[in-house]
Amino acid sequence: MHVREGREGALAATRTETRSVRPHFMLAPSLTCPASCAYCFGPNDGPTMSAETMQASLDFIDRITSATGQNSVKVTFHGGEPLAAGLSIWRQSLDGLRARFGEGGCEVGLQSNLWLLTNEFCELFRDHSVDIGTSLDGPREINDRLRGEGCFDRTMLGIRTAEAHGVSVGCIATFTPFNAPRWRQVLDFFLWIRAGPETAPTGTNTPTAE
Ligand code: SF4
Hints:
The structure is a single chain. The protein is of the alpha/beta class and 210 residues long. It has one domain: Aldolase class I (TIM Barrel, Alpha-Beta Barrel), CATH 3.20.20. The chain is 44% helix and 11% strand. It has seven helices and five strands. The protein has helices spanning 2-18, 51-68, 87-101, 119-127, 140-147, 151-164, 183-194, and strands at residues 24-27, 73-77, 106-111, 131-135, 169-172. Helix 2 packs parallel to helix 3 (87-101). It is elongated and about 65 Å long. Iron/sulfur cluster binds at residues 33, 35-37, 40, 42, 44, 79-81, 113.
């Protein structure tokens, strides 16, 4: 009896302490990635998540937050390439999070190279206010040096596709000994893409590296 009371008291104290703290969960729905960047330290060759595993992940988040009394969470989807998991897994996850936490109760982030972004994905992400981040290391000749030929154009197409649906995309850059000395050029590039498609309709007419 004492043990139970002590345990329930500890749980109540935990709930009080954690209720005002918003937990941040990371989900990796796919460990595969269609790119093969030279410096990739994450998995880029592996399985994608099944519907059963996604449901188990959602149940796990529900179990923890129910126990701690937290009704507002952040969930970030990483990979591999998270979009490789497919549209139905994404619908399942976003609908499940909304059902649990309500509209606005779950802030969702996605880190993706956007190669697999489709109009359907864009509509889903807009409806769920998904905060999208992608990765570019600078203009084409810098980016493709370590990420591979054609990577720049595919990611830029994804950025412009998202923007066409009213979904904005943030970028992170990896600096290496190759592009670190050219940081000003990388910075100019990011200022350029922020200017939007009006200044470069194809999305590929970037400032040159020289
Ligand atoms: S896009 Fe990301 S996950 Fe894919 S190979 Fe490049 S660094 Fe790795």
